[in-house]
Amino acid sequence: MEDTVNAAAERIRAAGAGPARPARDPVNLPMIRNWLEAIGDRNPRYEQDGLAPPAMTQVWTMRGLHPAADPTDPLSAMSAVLDQAGFTSVVATNCEQTYHRYLRDGERVEVRSRLVDVSGPKRTALGEGWFVTTDSTWYVGAEAVASMTFRVLRFRPPGSVAATPASERTAAASDVLRPVVTRDTSFFWAGTAAGELRIQRCGRCGRLRHPPGPVCRQCGADRQDHLVARGTGEVFSFVVHRHPPVPGRRLPIVVALVELTEGVRMVGEVLGADPAQVRIGAAVRVDFVRVDAELTLPAWRLLP
Amino acid sequence: MISGRVAIVGVGETEFSKDSGRSELQLAVAAVRAALADAGLAPTDVDGLVTFTMDSTAEIALAREVGVGELRFFSQVGYGGGAACATVQQAALAISAGTARVVVCYRALNERSGRRFGRVSRAISSAPTSSGVDNAWHYPMGLGTPAATVAMVARRYQHVFGATGEDFGRVAVAARRHAATNPRAWFFERPITLADHQASRWIAEPLRLLDCCQESDGAVAVVVAGAEQAADLRQTPAVITAAAQGSGADQYIMTSYYRDNLTGLPELGVVGRQLWQQSGLVPDDVRVAVLYDHFTPYVLMQLEELGFCPPGEARHFIADGAIELGGRLPVNPHGGQLGEAYIHGMNGIVEAVRQVRGSSVNQVAGAGPVLVTAGTGVPTSGLLLAPRGSGKVGH
Amino acid sequence: MIVAVGVVLPELRIPVTPTFVITTAVATRDFQDVHHDRDQAVRRGSKDIFLNILTTTGLVQRYVTDWAGATAMVHRVAVRLGAPCYAYDTLVLTGQVTQVSSTGCVVAVVGRVAGGDHVTGQVEVGRLP
């Protein structure tokens, strides 16, 4: 079962972005008003200037009451595979939307989505399931106006049939190479687990340093402290890794050496990026990949 | 001072293959026997052994099998292929100090049929050592192969200096041209064109398959002895004109990503400065260079770091075939690790010795010194070898 | 309005009536039954109908623009979903400025219900051009 899911995921992922799917209607004031009213948003700007609230971006391309089957849509295709494997329930877990500009009344948008990652099976509070991550970009003509990374959990409701035998359960997380953590470096990993990117700072002279170590190279002090990085930086260099396999990852992956705004450099995977779009100098923001209770990895996402 | 007082007096190799069919210990024994036979020495003449920390054959195991009796000097050098020339340096230091008389340096590996270095290694990533802690900053993030770690530097080098994949490719084309006329080379009679390089698949962009050295099985040994003793032996001695190790500021293994620039190999600069200073030579004096070629971009950067051309200009330096046979500075006449075999740099020392003796299949005319370097991107080492009496000796 | 790291946004309490769940679902064109049909929601293992994610995203955006004013321009909304927000819950939104730059700020938002954190997120906001 697990191999079937992984093989399907790889196939769908390799197929890349599906075709552009146009919104049913152009951006329009009646729907904007309905939304503002239901949400309780009294910001006058939208009606005055004929702008759509940014959080409505996805609304324009929702499929409606009777959605047609769309095998070319990566999320639909992956959902069908997981449905077949018994993971019939779904819950959204993460949604990150970036708005390059606000949409205007009358504009016609279309959306293209691609499957980024399928990981599992994992035990969750809801039951055993798979996390499915997609990236979507909305366009007006050729102009990208917004993008979204969306993650859902497809799970088998507890009590349902055919629980996977334990022997088949080799979560991809267990394959990820784990860092050697010492007293000198544990603050960093405690930080990622807490959603903080920590940079070592000398407790005496304040010098920042990464990778960290027990003694300040500037003043010799062994009192180490840290600050929480802003989480932004620029790609200093990067690699598109295609061969050989990397445990716990589906290739290709983009790994970047990022120069943080604070001045230190740090290596991390660039998530959800088309390798062809990554450039030296590109702005990135930190993200965190929770592997399991013990390990959360820092990673990067390109900023628009 | 080593300069001129110690020499390589014998070299030995096994065949280079993709599946030796023998244990690494057997390979080591075969190479050491061949080297001693080449030198005209007996196992009982040996009183020192040096290898790599990465080698699986301990000095005592080798001594037992070969029939070396008492050992007075034994040592292992760290940092992967960066150890290659340093094994000879350690031998030379021990001999100059009077600690040992005849030292054999060896390296045996089933790198293709056994543990392949190009793969992601869980053992390296999880080593309970300071290097394991260093690895925590990139292995878990998905950067865990030698090619990928080099690609990170290569990309920056391209960005800063405008070098292209074709510039990298010219290094591979030269190596394969040389290997094509070396019967010992895996790629004997199989040259490539720049188009072949450009068509080879991506491994870790910007590196393609043909930017990466081979994976090989095989063993190499070299015998080091004092120059006075060398004069009585069978072969023309390859006198050690200079020998050096080097580690740079803020040094890591393959991931020295936290220095100001990411466009050079400062650790090799440390080696180069010592080689020129010890020998009194300058880059222009060098007849042949054997440069460690695990990945093509680092050959360009070595040319710059050693002073053959200014930083960023190696692509111009090599553009007219300078590093090919017949060029201004033939590099790796044996085909290097791209073309001959990947024996962790030790086969390059053998080629350098042959160039000194005048016995290489791709002999470069002249009597000038031969330069050899070891693995780059890691703490490294280098040698200058010459026939007796050639070259200036400084100080 | 004061923008500085640590500034706390006024709390927003939303009584989540069935009408609220259903009208927001329809306004976001999400017609899945768990957002408007209690019997079906219960059959699928939920205790009641619950808010859809597009609404949660919308509420987080609204919460920050209520505070930042009409000239605010939202650049990014990132949310992580936790406990479902069911009909008859009270959703309590709180927020705090975590980063400030010359062009805008980042607000961390938490939306709590009886069952725990329904949503945690960040909103990056600047000014309309």
Q: Quick summary of this structure?
A:
The complex is a heterotrimer of chains A (304), B (395) and C (129). Chain B is an alpha/beta fold and 395 residues long.
Number of domains of chain B: 1
At the first level of CATH, what is the class of chain B? Answer: Alpha Beta
**At CATH's second level, what is the architecture of chain C?**
Roll
Lateral arrangement of strands in the main beta sheet of chain C: 1-3-4-5-2
* % residues in beta strands of chain C: 35-45%
Stated plainly, the CATH topology of chain B is called Peroxisomal Thiolase, Chain A, domain 1
What is the number of helical segments of chain C per DSSP (H or I, 4+ residues)?
3
How many angstroms does the end-to-end distance of chain C come to? Answer: 19 Å
Low-confidence stretches of chain C: none
Largest sheet of chain C: 5 strands, antiparallel
Major β-sheet strand ordering of chain B: 3-2-4-7-1-8-11-10-9
Mean pLDDT score of chain B, rounded? 96
Give a short account of the largest sheet of chain B: 9 strands, mixed
Structural class computed from helices and strand pairing of chain C: alpha+beta
- Basic shape of chain B: globular
Strand segment count of chain B: 11
Helix content of chain C: 10-25%
List SSEs of chain C in N-to-C order.
EHHHEEEE
Might you state the CATH topology name of chain C?
A: Thiol Ester Dehydrase, Chain A
Which pair has the most extensive contact?
A-B, 39 and 38 residues
How does this structure look, described?
The complex is a heterotrimer of chains A (304), B (395) and C (129). Chain A is of the alpha+beta class. Chain A folds into two domains: 2-170, Hotdog Thioesterase (Thiol Ester Dehydrase, Chain A), CATH 3.10.129; 186-302, no CATH class. In chain A, 17% of the residues lie in helices and 35% in strands. A five-stranded antiparallel sheet of chain A has the order 1-3-4-5-2, sandwiched between helices. In chain B, strand 5 (202-205) and strand 6 form a beta hairpin. Chain B contains 14 helices and eleven strands. A nine-stranded mixed sheet of chain B has the order 3-2-4-7-1-8-11-10-9. Chain B has a two-stranded antiparallel ribbon with strand order 5-6. The model of chain B is unreliable at 391-395 (pLDDT under 50). Chain C is an alpha+beta fold. Chain C has one domain: Thiol Ester Dehydrase, Chain A. Chain C has three helices and five strands. A five-stranded antiparallel sheet of chain C has the order 1-3-4-5-2, covered by helices on one side. The longest helix of chain C is centred in the middle third of the chain and has 16 residues, at 53-68. Chain C is elongated. Chain C starts with 7 loop residues before the first strand and ends with a strand. The model of chain C has no long low-confidence stretch (mean pLDDT 91). Classes of the chains: A alpha+beta (304), B alpha/beta (395), C alpha+beta (129). At the A-B interface, strand 9, strand 10, strand 11 and strand 13 of A face helix 5, helix 6 and strand 5 of B. Strand 2 of chain A pairs antiparallel with strand 2 of chain C, so a sheet runs across the interface.
